[in-house]
Design brief:
Elements (H helix, E strand, L loop, with lengths): L1 H12 L12 H12 L17 H4 L18 H21 L1 H16 L4 E5 L1 H18 L6 E5 L17 H10 L7 E5 L6 H12 L3 E6 L24 E4 L14 H20 L3 E2 L2 E2 L7 H15 L3 H10 L4 H7 L1
Parallel strand pairs: 1-2, 1-3, 3-4, 4-5
Antiparallel strand pairs: 6-7
Length: about 325
């Protein structure tokens, strides 16, 4: 009751705020806020109060050392660049292996959006930023309303430009984020976590599942796809509880544990495939041309003119006049030409 009342009051001044009951001693929160008030003040928990790193996380593929990059500091720039390029082949291989699951994800998302549902990306750190990035590109590219595809990142807006990595450690915070977005049975929630075990994401997916939404896990850790994860302590939702698990196993990173590298690349491509495939399914593409793009800049207006010229077989100036006559609405111009 207290949490609900506090959230209602706080929302008036801080609409993006996340409110949840504290799961740790309140003194830690007070010390953290004090440290935040001083830019150069560091706050360190007593080692005895820091949660131990789960053995399952330590053993995930994305945390392993890459034998091909064990001497990075000894490489010259040319060798380092070549290594990065060579490692990208593992991204393509992983995506090819996941092709059938990516196709199924397109079907699930398209079906949901056609039925009035929405698509949510849930992630923390690099995974969350990639989800927000893909979601933010949908309205201008496909003329979709901003609520149709939404990105949710642990730590909120601040985490987009400054690391708030500790925000990912609470399952309850992820669950609260889902509730605050009003997730319903018609929606699809895609949890993005390279390790497959991020508490914020798992908590969000568990709550979304309980609300009747379709849930998809996008991970770079093959072990999550097995039954062995189910029922273990700290597991908010068993592997068998997901509607779909997409595994893009890119292998260990060049810099051990830095999943903004290959894992990040594979994640972005996977989301590109899913969201673009769904928009194609909704009829927002003709051939390979965007017919619902928002003409909000000089570049996009020029693109719209060229699309009209191409699809209606007319010259550039005639296509421009047609768009101007239809208030730069590309779809309407195509339907009335």
């Amino acid at each position: 009751m207290y949490t609900h009342a506090f959230r209602r009051r706080l929302k008036k001044n801080l609409p993006d705020a996340r409110v949840a009951a504290a799961e740790r001693a309140p003194e830690l929160g007070a010390a953290w806020l004090a440290a935040e008030a001083r830019e150069h003040t560091a706050f360190h928990q007593n080692p005895s109060q820091i949660d131990p790193i789960p053995k399952a996380l330590v053993n995930t593929l994305t945390e392993q050392r890459n034998p091909r990059s064990e001497s990075l500091e000894k490489m010259n720039p040319q060798t380092l660049v070549q290594l990065f390029i060579e490692e990208e082949k593992f991204v393509q291989d992983a995506l090819r292996t996941a092709a059938a699951d990516l196709a199924r994800a397109i079907e699930i998302v398209t079906e949901s959006l056609r039925s009035g549902g929405r698509l949510f990306y849930i992630g923390a750190g690099s995974s969350g930023r990639i989800g927000v990035l893909d979601a933010s590109e949908i309205p201008p590219t496909f003329g979709a309303p901003t609520h149709l595809v939404q990105g949710v990142i642990a730590g909120g807006i601040t985490a987009l430009h400054r690391s708030v990595e500790g925000a990912e450690d609470e399952q309850s915070t992820g669950a609260l984020a889902v509730v605050e977005r009003g997730v319903k049975p018609a929606d699809v929630v895609i949890g993005i976590t390279a390790s497959g075990r991020t508490p914020f994401v798992r908590g969000a997916l568990a709550r979304a599942k309980s609300l009747g939404a379709r849930v998809i896990l996008l991970t770079c850790n093959p072990s999550v796809a097995g039954i062995g994860d189910a029922g273990q302590p700290g597991s908010s939702i068993p592997a068998t509880g997901f509607d779909l698990i997409i595994t893009v196993a890119v292998g260990p990173e060049i810099l051990a544990g830095s999943t903004r590298l290959k894992a990040g690349t594979a994640t972005k491509v996977a989301l590109n495939i899913i969201s673009t495939g769904a928009m194609i399914g909704l009829g927002k593409v003709r051939g390979n041309l965007m017919i619902d793009l928002h003409t909000t800049s000089t570049k996009l207006r020029d693109r719209a003119v060229r699309i009209i010229a191409e699809l209606t077989q007319r010259d550039y100036e005639s296509a421009r006049r047609l768009l101007e006559a239809n208030d730069w609405n590309l779809r309407v111009a195509l339907e009335t030409h």
